[in-house]
Amino acid sequence: MSDLFEVFELEISQDVLQAKLKQKAPAPENLTYEELNAFLQQSGVSAGLKHDVIAAVISGDVLPPVVIAEGKAPKAGKDAFLWTVLDEQAASDIRNEELETKSRVNLREVIDIPTVRSGEVVGKKIHPTAGTDGTGVNGEVLPGKNGKDLTLRPGKNTRINDDADEITSAIDGQISVEPRLVHVYPVYEVNGDLDLKTGNLDFIGNINIRGNVPAGFSVKAQGDIRVHGSVEAARLTAGGSIYIHQGIVAQGDGAIEAEGEVRTSFINQANVFAAGDITVSTSILHSHIEAHGAIICNERKGNVCGGKLAAVKGVDVNEIGNQMNTPTEIYIGVSKRLLEREEHLRQQKARANDELNKNGKLLKKIIDKEKHQPLSDKERTTKKRIRRSFSNTYEQLNEAAGALDAVQRSLQLNEQAKIAIRRQVFPMTDLYFGKYRRRITSTHQGVIFYLHQSEITFEPV
């Protein structure tokens, strides 16, 4: 057996999931299966042995180096996530899509947001699943990570049940969904185009415009904004998401900004920002787009041409650039805006905590006094005011904590971000992963770009 250590050596991968047999000298002619197998065992390889490969090495049909053993990789459990009534509608739309022609743009799920009733369940926590253990080639158990849990938090006009796994609506209204929050807002309807009669809009809830938004107008909503027509060079700002049925043609002016996601059919010469994903059905042309989530444009033509796109979680499109080699820039990585938002939310959360502690002490002092003697009218008024302030501050704390959690998850996912190009990317496209840049000098088809060991590389889709 000692002779075999002069003939062979084993290379075990760092994750102990693979063992490679290498040969240093000619093998004995009378080498047996049992001898080689015993050598592997003594070298620390006891699991995942490829017995057919061992036999092939013995017979001389396969010459080292060769993978002689492979372990079983552990599998991570699924993270907990928030299911909402919008997910149920999306599943229904997918089933109904088979009845519609592929050439038709279907943004029905964007426009037809369900109205919910007070007391109705609008969201549920789907609990995490356990990981599955793996086995290294050395027989070591490789523990699978369990899925991460999440804590549901109440949003605007929503409540969490005692088991902390369901969200119910406190009012009749339309829902607005964030990664870990569900809000229910009253709705302001505009039955037609925005014009001088309606003027600019600023509403506490959701805004639903059943026509177009011309250039020069401003629409601001604490919840979602839904436009059934198109948006020109206007300014739309939403505390929730923005959905535009017929697309954006902004001629380089105006701005679309959403704290949730943005969905539309096309974007032309526009400035668009979303704290969530930006999903476009057909094309993004000569625009400045920034998403703290992902940018997705992979339906129909699904092309991006000209302008700058920046996304924290990655880009998934059909085509970038064109045959005229129009300069196009794609940025992957953490933006200055995201880092500033993280710091702002940290400060907002700290201020809310300080305010809660302050009001809590004042309230306790008044309640303790009330146990021993009746309160004066002024003291009763102060007690009510403190209770209202406490409730409002608690709501602000929940919102800040939820938003901060979403930002921090975006920062964690940034390391795995990729640029997927399902059809082709043309020359004069610049790809940036943080400080690293790669200029495309020839056409590539069906590739995924990613950062690996400080180099932007690619592989087939």
Automatic annotation (TrEMBL):
Residues 8-178 form the Flagellar Assembly Protein A N-terminal region domain. Residues 125-147 are annotated as: Disordered. It comes from the Bacteria. Pfam families: FapA, FapA_N. InterPro entries: FapA, FapA_b_solenoid, FapA_N. This is Flagellar Assembly Protein A N-terminal region domain-containing protein. It comes from Salisediminibacterium halotolerans.
